[in-house]
Amino acid sequence: MDLYKSRHRAKRNLDINKDPLFADPFVLTTLHKLDELERQTRPDCDPHGKDRAAFQALVHASWLVKHVAGWAIDHQRGLAENGLHFVPRGANQTNNSPSYLAKRAQVDQHQHEAVGSAAAPLDPGQLRLFVFNVLRAMPRLGLPHELIEALEALDFGQTLPILAKAETKKRLGLTEYKAKLAAVCFIEYQYKRGIKKLVSIEDVAHAFQVSREAVKDWNVEVREALGNYEVERVTTMARNMGAHTRTMNPGSSLILAAEKKVGKIAMLEAAERFKARAKKPAPVKSARRPR
Length: 291
What we know:
The protein is an all-alpha fold. It has helices at residues 8-11, 25-40, 50-81, 98-107, 110-118, 124-136, 145-154, 174-192, 197-208, 212-216, 218-226, 228-245, 253-261, 264-275.
C-alpha cells in the first residue's frame, strides 16, 4: 500500500523543509479563486450568480482540504475500516490510565493512513463511521451537532429525527426513481447515437425485468417525482453525449466515459439497484469495536 498517496510533497519528491505548503502553487491558485469568489459575492454586489459561486467556493475548499490534509482523511477512513475512531484526551487522572493508553496505541499507527489511502470498498457500517470520523473533526463548518450524534445513535439502534425518513405520498424511494432516470437517459443517449428508441426500450425492459409499456411511462413518472428541470438537465446531457460520440471510434476513452455515465454500463448498474428494491435490506452491522 502507498502510505503517501495523499501527501503531495511525497508524491512529487519535494523537500518538506524547502517546499512549505504556503508556497505550493495549487494552494496559492485555490486561495486566489476563493478570494475572487468572496469579492464577487459581497453584500454590496449584484446577487446574480451568488448561489453558483457559493457552491464553487465549497468545491474549491474541499479540493484545498484534500490537497493539504488528504492524509488525515485517509487516516479517518483507515480507522473506520478497522472499527476505530478518534480517542479524545480526558482529565489528567485518565490520560495515563491503561485503558486510555491502550486505545491510543490502537489509533496512533501509520498503518491506518495506508489502509485508508487504498480506498477499499467499505460496508455500510464502515462508511457511516468514516463520515462520523471526518465530521467530528470539523465542528467549525457549522454543521448541526445533531447530525453527528444521530450517526452515532444508529449504532445503538436508535434513529434520531434528523435522520428519520420524511412522510411522503411518493410510491417509490429515491433509489428507484434515480434508477428509472438512468434508464431514460440511456434511451436518449442511444437515440442520439443512431439507435431507435424501441430497441433501447427493449434493452431496458429486459435489464430491469419489467414490461416495455412500463418503461415508456418512466419519462413522465420521473419528472413528476424528481422535478422537470432535473430530468431535463440530465437527459439533455445524455443526448449531447450521444451526439458527440456518435462518430467516434468504439474504443475511444470518451465513449467509455459516456457509457459509464449515461450509457449501457450505467443503465445495467441502475437495473441492479432497481431489482434489489424487492429484497429486504439486511440489518447494518455496527463497524465500531466494542467499547
